[in-house]
Amino acid sequence: MNETGRNGLWRATLTLLAGGALAQALPLLLGPWISRLYGPEEFGAYTAFWTVAANLAVVACLRYEFALPLERDEPGARALLALCVRLLLAVGAFSALLAGAMAAMGRMPHAGWLPIAVLALGACQLATMWANRDERFRALAASRVLQHGGGAVGQVAMGWGGASVLGLIAAPVAAAAAATCLLARMPGDVARGVWQAVRHPAAGALSSAWRRHRDFPLLNAPHAFAGALQDTLAVALLAAWSGDAAVGCWGLALRYLKAPATLVGGAVSQALYPKLVSASPAQARATVRQVMALLGGAAAVLALLLFAAGPGLFAAVFGERWRLAGELARALSPYIALHFVASPLAVVTMAWRGQAWALRLALVGQAMFLLALALGLKLGGLLGGAWAVSAAMALYFGYYFWRLATWREIPAPLNAEAQHAAGT
Q1: Model confidence over 304-361: pLDDT tens digits?
Q2: From CA 399, how far away is CA 408, in angstroms rounded?
Q3: 13, 271 Cβ separation under 8 angstroms
Q4: 421: which residues sit within 8 A by CB, 6+ positions away?
Q5: CA 392 → CA 338, 386, 397, distances in Å?
Q6: 225 near 48, Cβ under 8 Å?
Q7: Which is more confidently placed, 49 or 259?
Q8: DSSP of 95-137, one letter per residue?
Q9: How does pLDDT run across 1-37, given as a tens digit for each residue?
């Protein structure tokens, strides 16, 4: 990558990182209050709800939104955006039906919030990728502060008001909706054109966008859904084996342990994706290796800190009733460190057209995760499950990093005309 391109990547990354730092600092700073306003059982109920909502939201647009940075001409981008909006509305309607069924069976408290959460999270992801296409990195940074920081502030405010589990759910939903409004701003003629295409699509425009980027629903959507399903099934295993309090401790531990990956990974991936699309194969390979090396050093420090001080740190910060979450943090420290490195690299196989390979490998990894957790729970209880997950994921991520570092068939960058011809 030339000096201008490299400087552009890191400048964009630092812009997003600054916004992400504030976005994650607020939940981390407010964590001690949140953990004293809500107990492990309430966190368990919230975690169970949120994993289902996230599982649906992650495929609310069938991952077509991630193709937006690949669309270099405006008519194609608008048609693709309209397609995403139609899909989002359809998945929202399905979520409402699912919520009704779950409420009738008494399986989920506050099930009525499910379609609202799915629509808010899905719309926020769509607006994020639209802004990413335009490289509006300052707006992306501000939206992350609003979504993640605002959600934590809202949870504190609603907890003080005695909202219980509803406060944990409603606050991040409202914050995601606000972030969507910030990112979705566009010229009036563009907005009207997109909405017209949603209501009355031009003959062939949406179907052309559907065909041109069909790898995203066929390959990336199952990949993303399976990844979210891993969390859903893990929560179900933990609830069946150890109860809601254990689910709450697991959820709190992962919420704060994955915060650095959310912060750094989100910033790096949003800046990395458009750069890989336009880079030469040699430049792209060098950039990915550099990113892996830098993140690996930071991840090693994180793992050592969690291993040495996890239980005491969680008890001191969140209260003694959360010491079990600290024990989980220690056991999960190798997995968390590896996830920290892997988090932003998901966009690499999108840019390098390796989504079929990524899907196959992800399914193997998710099976390894769940089997390790189940076996560990059976043999060693909750902490045994966490240590087993770390051992299995060390093997999985080691292979994943090696393959990315030695990837052979990196595509050459395409201009707008060549991209359209290749996709049609």
Answers
A1: 999 999 999 999 989 898 999 999 999 999 999 999 999 889 889 888 888 889 889 9
A2: 15
A3: yes
A4: none
A5: 11, 10, 9
A6: no
A7: 49
A8: HHHHHHHHHHHT-STTGGGHHHHHHHHHHHHHHHHHHHHTT-H
A9: 444 455 556 677 677 767 777 877 888 889 899 989 9
